[in-house]
Amino acid sequence: MTHRVSNLRLRSFVFLFVASFSLLCSIPTYAYFPFITDDTGTQGEGGNQLELNYVFIKERGVGIAEDGTYYPGDYGTSNSFPVTYTRGLTEDLDVFVGMIRQTSPTNGWMNSAIGFKWRFAGNPEEGWSFAVKPALLTPVSRNMEASGLGNGKTNGTVSLISSFIQPKYEVHINARYTSNLSYSGSEEQQAQHLWGVSVAPVWVLNDQWKLGVDAGLETNPNATSAQVAYAQIGAVYAPVKNVQLGLGLMGNRALGSPSREYNWSIMSGITWQF
Q1: Which portions of the chain are predicted below pLDDT 70?
Q2: What contacts 152, CB < 8 A, 6 or more positions away?
Q3: Looking at residue 73, what is its pLDDT?
Q4: Cα 59 to chain center, whole Å?
Q5: 8 A C-beta contact, residue 242 and residue 274
Q6: CA 67 to chain centre
Q7: DSSP secondary structure string, 181-238?
Q8: Coil vs helix vs strand at 17
Q9: pLDDT at residue number 64
């Protein structure tokens, strides 16, 4: 039987980075890059933050046979550079804008986002606190979408965030929704509504070091399976006040998919509050 290779990829992972790193994650007062799960911290009134990151991804894509069945696709890699700026309007309210520059396999700007994070309950210094974080995801052109640089239609996302803070450890829990509208993806090939949950326990070793793990379950935008699971380990090091360096490793796999698509990634970055 003759086969053709689809340009489908594990778009949940790409969207996860778009939504959770440069576009949604503002890495607030308690800085947790490179983790996906966000916390409830904010910059405080008049505070600023700049985040510069690098993400390398290696993935196995999805092949589609002429009869419509899926099989393991080709391997590929990508390199991208997320940038996020955050401004604190009040003690409990941040606004942010994020962009991603991808350099390979296609060179260009990916979907950008503008949004805010509002901590509406709790003490961010100790115990439980709660926040909400909505954002607007701006579209790329149709040609850019066809090149794999993002979605050509406007989308939105919202996260509900809970954090539990103690002197020696922290636990962060997220529940999120992201719309996934595009010109190239039909309802038969990709999910239009993406849901996700995640949890990240973080251990505070001392004033400079934090270690943590992150795990979550997301809707798979591809029709190959219903969910994608990810797991992540990472570290944050603060060499000086108001500067954090992050390094992490993450794996991501579509559950029950006949194409067995998966990927792994290395991410690093620097965050500066001023």
Answers
A1: 1-32, 61-73, 185-188, 223-224, 259
A2: 139, 140, 141, 142, 144, 145, 182, 183, 184
A3: 67
A4: 16
A5: yes
A6: 34
A7: --SS--TTTB-SEEEEEEEEEEEE-SSSEEEEEEEEEEE-SBTT-SEEEEEEEEEEEE
A8: helix
A9: 64
Q: What is the mean pLDDT of the chain?
A: 84
Do 261 and 73 form a contact (C-beta atoms < 8 A)? yes
Total residues belonging to the chain: 274
Query: Residue 67 has which token pair?
Result: 């009869």
Distance CA 94, CA 90 (A): 7
Cα 182 to Cα 179: distance, rounded to the nearest angstrom: 10
Tell me the one-letter amino acid at 234.
G
Find tokens 């251990």 and name the residue: 203
Among candidate residues 113, 183, 112, 188, the one with its CA nearest the CA of residue 143: 183
DSSP state of 13: H
Contact 32, 173 (CB under 8 A): no
Amino acid occupying residue 65: A
Q: List strand residue ranges (DSSP E) for 107-191, in order.
A: 108-109, 113-122, 127-137, 155-165, 169-179
Largest Cα separation within the chain, whole Å, is 63
pLDDT of residue 4: 37
Rounded Cα gap, residues 171 and 77, in angstroms: 32
Question: 243 is written with which tokens?
Answer: 């500067």
- What is the chain's alpha carbon radius of gyration, rounded to the nearest angstrom? 18
Per-residue pLDDT tens over the stretch 164-175: 999 999 999 999
- d(CA 229, CA 246) in angstroms, rounded, equals 22
Residue 122 tokens read as 């709790």
Structure tokens at 119: 């901590």
Note whether 181 and 150 are within 8 A (CB).
Answer: no
Q: What pLDDT is attached to residue 185?
A: 67
